[in-house]
Structure formats: structure tokens, C-alpha cells
Amino acid sequence: MSATETASTPTDAARQAPRILVVDDEPSMRQMLAIVLKREGYEVSLAENGRMAVAALERGPFDLLISDIKMPDMSGVEVLRAAKQIDPDILGIMITAFASTETAIEAMRLGACDYLSKPFDIDLLKMKVREKVENRHLKQENILLKRTLGVSHSFSNIIGRSESMLDVFKMIETVARTNSTILLTGESGTGKGLVAQAVHYHSLRRDKPMVALNCGAMPETLLESEMFGHMRGAFTGADQNKKGLLEVAEKGTIFLDEIGEMSPVMQVKLLRVLQERRFRRVGGLEELQADIRVIAATNQDLAKAVAESRFREDLFYRINVIPIVLPPLRERREDIPLLAEHFLAKYSSQMEKPVTAISRPALELLQKHDWPGNIRELENVIERAVALEGTPSIQPESLPAVVRGGSPRLAASLTSGGHETLPVEGLDLEARVQEIERSYLSQALERANGMQGKAAELLGMSFRSFRYYVKKYNLR
Fold it and tell me: Does the N-terminal peptide bond of residue 119 adopt cis geometry, omega within 30 degrees of 0?
């Protein structure tokens, strides 16, 4: 076989089997272990030296490492040390014909779970491998169960350990039990809806309804009916009385998403609700009570909208009682691995695919990307990767081209008006210009929630030109 050999057939059953990496410079030992372990139902990969073993581990993941200690290029102890840096939970069994107390102690200190001297009993090896693999899987299941329970019941699936997100968590805990109106601001895809849910479910109103209304997704007349309800005969097609979401949310919470898109007329009507806590159905005379908690959200700069007379100043002050700003994903890169793992578990379960990890090269690409679409974009990328991946771990090839090859800080540099320095080795100017074009087009589409006409306006382009470039760069 070649330097890094695979001794199992890449069937679905094999991919679901525990994965073992065998490292030995003796071909006969590699082949013997491959035959024995494959018969036990394991997926076995073989490496003839330490360097090839480390490369295989980086493509990983593996449940168990079985390594000879004395090899020409790297010792088994060095391979184990590298394996632990890649996956701290990997188990290791060291085998050698040159046993010594020093190497045994060093291997066990690094986390080797066992140590065998050649020649060893095959049945003993099989027993030890089975025991170690089962222990690893039980530990992983316990971790996953705890993580799932924690995610399901803590802050409504908001995930993060960065300082900026810890500040958000602290704010949620502080204000959730009050009745104050909250304004959530942040770029599209930063999780404003999840924060609204978290506030509601940690509030005194959690046993009452929470309803959501996207203020930018419908025309003014329909929005008014959805919010306030209507009486029979109020307009053509109103053949019966209908409760609005303000009634449905009585004693609960209403989440007004994209409030910056609300028309001036609706802004006036919402202001009255916030001031008087009363409203009327469309076509109705009866004053109805509005005992509700209002959480509003926007990706716009409302203070700027007020200055430009696009948003009422008095309404702005009414909804901006407690502002919570959600940071973009590029400003909390330490949260990307956590979020990626969460989406990996979600979509591998939904698709029933045994994709259980993200390779180190793929994770590095994820952490370098600037994520103009934030968490929503990351989720879409992981869903796509799980669907395309044919191995147990996501590889760079399953990631979109914009994540694999884009300049990692391009969007941030362009947004801040930064200038890039020409590399010493030069660059492909045409490719660079296309990269810049694609980045701006993607950001405009995201900011416009996929509406191409609005995105074209943001870039000062005609709709026809914008549509041409969307097709050229295969954007969605």
C-alpha cells in the first residue's frame, strides 16, 4: 500500500464504524493489524511513518491511535503528542519491541491509555481496543447530551463564550424580568430573534404567548391588520372578525422585527400603543387593552434614520429604553468553532449522515472568513458542507469557494476604507477585482435581505447590471 493506506471500504457502514489509525514502519505489522481490526468492524487507516500519521490525523477524526514507538522520522511518542494537540480526547495505544521505563512513562504522561510490548497477544489487543473505543464513545455521548441539554435550555440556543456575548447574556439576565421595552440592533444574521426569545423565556411573562411580526415583510394595510386585527366588513375580503397579534400576545411579548422598515403611518399607531397601552381593531370602535412587553429589532442605524426624518424621534425614544447591541461574527471569532459544532450536530442528525467533526484546515478557513451574513451565513455553510461531505469530517473542499479562497479580512478592510499593500510577489489583479466585486455584491444582498433591486441601489447600479453580476458570481 501507499504511505497512507486505507484498509476499509468507504461504505456508509464503514464510515459509521469507530476509526483507528495504525502507525508502524513495518509493512507486515501494519497489514496484520489492519486485517485483525477490520474483522472486528473498525475502519482502519494505515501510515508507514510519523509524518504521514500526523497528516492523516489532521484530516481526521480518529477514535484511537495505535502506534509503534521506534520509527525512523518521528517516534510514536512524538506522534501521540501531535495527535493530542489536534484532538485532546483521542486515545492512544503504544506498541514496541524496545520497551523502556522512560518511554512508557512519557507515553502515559501524554495520555496513552495502554502500552504493549512486541510480540503481543492478539486477543488481548482486541479486548483493549474494544474497551478503549467504547469508553471514548460513552464519554462523547455524555458530552453531547450535556451540551444539547444546555443549549436547549440556556438562552434559547444562543451560543458564545466571547466577552461580547457574555455581556449580552448578562444583559439578558438583568433585564428579562422587567417589563421595559428593548431595542435589539445588529447586522442581519446576528441572532436578534434568538435574543428576543431568550428575554421572553427568562421573563415573568414566559407562560404567556410570544408572537413575532416582521414589519418589513408586508404592505402597510396588511401590517395594520396583522398587528391590530380587524372587524368584519372593515375592508374587502374581511368576512369575519380577526384578532391581531397585539391581542394574541396579551400579557405576553410581541417581537417587532425590522421595525426600521415600518411606514410613518404605522409608526404613529404603534407610538399610541406604547404610550396608552390601548388600541382598536381596524374598523372597530372598542378600545382594547395592550398589556404586552415589546421587543423591537433592526439592522438599521435608527438614530441616523431619525436625523434624516425617516423614523419618528418620539417612537425611537419609546423603543430604545434598553438597547442591546449584538456584535457581528467577525468580531467574536472565538465563537465560530462552538457555533460550527452546533450546526454540524444539527444537520448531521437531520440528514442522518455520520459527519461528526470539522477538520483542522476547514476550521481554520471558517475562522478566517469575515462572515458578512453572520451566524445565518455560517449555518448555511455548515448545512451545505454536511450535505456534500463524503468523509466523517468536513474537509475544505466541501466549503464554498468564497470561504476557501477569499481574502479573510477583505470585507472589513473595504468597509473601513482600508488600503491593501501590493504583495512582494505581486498578485492577479483581475482575480482580486472579482473578489472585491463579489464581496460587495454578497454584502449588499445580505443587507437587502435578498431583494436584488434594493441591493442594486446600495451599490449605485442598475438592476440589469446587478442581475448580470449575481449570475456571473453564482450568488443567491
Answer: yes
DSSP element (H, E) containing 341: helix 336-351
Query: What's the grid cell of residue 266?
Result: 404605522
pLDDT in tens, 453-469: 888 888 877 777 777 77
Shared-domain flag, residues 367 and 419: no
Q: State the pLDDT confidence band at 106, using cuts at 50, 70 and 90.
A: low
- Would you call 34 helix, strand, or coil by DSSP? helix
Range of the domain at 250: 157-327
Domain end: 356, 376, 400, which one? 400
Amino acid making up residue 179 = N
Count of Cβ atoms closer than 10 Å to residue 239 Cβ: 8
Residues 310 and 389 placed together within one structural domain of the fold: no
3-state secondary structure 68-131: ECCCCCCCHHHHHHHHHHHCCCCEEEEEECCCCHHHHHHHHHHCEEEEEECCCCHHHHHHHHHH
pLDDT tens string 42-71: 899 999 998 899 989 888 788 888 988 888
In this model, does residue 97 exceed pLDDT 50? yes
Answering whether pTM is above 0.70, one says: no
